[in-house]
Amino acid sequence: MHPDLTSVRDALLAGRESAAEWLDRARAAAALPASRHAFLRHFWPQAEAAAQAADHARAAGVPLPPLAGLAVSIKDLFDVAGHPTTAGSIVLPADRPAERDAAAVARLRRAGAALVGHTNMTEFAFSGVGWNPHHGTPANPVTAALDPATPRIPGGSSSGAAVSVSTGAAWAALGSDTGGSIRVPAALQGLVGFKNTARLTPLDGAVPLSTTLDTACAITHSVRDAVLLHEVLADRRVALSCRPLSGWRLAVVRTTLLDGLDTTVAAAFERTLATLRRQGARVEELELSHIEQLSQIQSSGGFAAAESWSWHRRRLATERHRYDPRVAQRIERGAAMSAADYIDLQQARSAWIASMQQTLNGYDALLSPTVPIVAPPLASITDDDAEFFRVNALLLRNPSVVNMLDGCALSLPCHGPDELPVGLMVWSTALRDDTVLDVSLAIEAALQHAGSRP
């Protein structure tokens, strides 16, 4: 179990450790077999300069920046000055370095992050599995410790991002979330993944999947680290009330989101609800039939298909053979959507969001399993397209509801110490980010107090 970034920053402030020493440990972790395929390229000289600057500042009595020269990884979707951005593909040129940082990367750098490298990902961020046939797929390092004989999927699309945090190669990871790409790998690896309201964080300098749904956000070890990273990425202060669990009105959504849970997820989720209720939480059950409307609303292909087709169509016309066929297949669904279909989709989403907001008014947050299954074996999806797409649909089913809602959500671990990782999703409507973080801090504390969170 790794400490979180906040505790390490406290150690730096107290002079017990140096940022350079912690960076050496991150570099060693990145070289371990558990980190295989997690990174596509490293930025060690830049990282060393940031760590040394933090150490010099502390020695001189200068206040440390928020991220204090500590290791942060960057999904290969975001531009880092001096390095190419390839989005996990072999289609984009690997010999054209970015001239400037993406906006989110620039904010991390200004906050003192030691940027350690571009992490592997599903090609063009188009699946929740984490599979990448071009660069290799990193095995889930957390499940490997419990079940070493069965390599399991890391979750995606921010696969290498989560692995970098799980192995200790980074304290936090910048990624993106279009239908769950932060929360899925966080759930499958026992980490914290916060998807903020999309408009709060900039996407300038990032390769798009869906301009409507994409969100720049981070994976961390703890909810307090999620608060810190969100403050940096959104350039805003989070307002926390630190109310006890009894001060929040919570609801469990019973419609669709609890369907087909495997036994590990079902047991962990029910145990979590029981723990929260014992510690004073008011948890109601809510039938939310609106969720059943999403399949019809997106029947023509959805935003990701339409908007990725617009971005990729010319390149696919000449280079389709270089794409992951599973990714190309999903992008090409957008070719069948007309302009009228796309306008209908926008209007239907707006009406659906308005109806959802009215129904959810009065609840502080909703509770659901982040994903309905534990991480499946890698072998099960390697050569079986039907199983791949079945697993992908299951992984994205719950978290994608929040993206369509234009909402915010946090996944935190809720499994026992000897169980495969399970995520609890705490979610709400747009711009309720501070409330979701506030509630999540209380839930995390309650689960740790009960011994139900590893």
Automatic annotation (TrEMBL):
Gene Ontology MF annotations: catalytic activity
Stated name of the protein: Amidase
Chain ranges of the Amidase domain: 30-437
Organism: Caldimonas brevitalea
One Pfam family from the record: Amidase
Gene of this entry: gatA
InterPro entries: Amidase (IPR000120), Amidase_CS (IPR020556), Amidase_dom (IPR023631), AS_sf (IPR036928)
Source domain of life: Bacteria
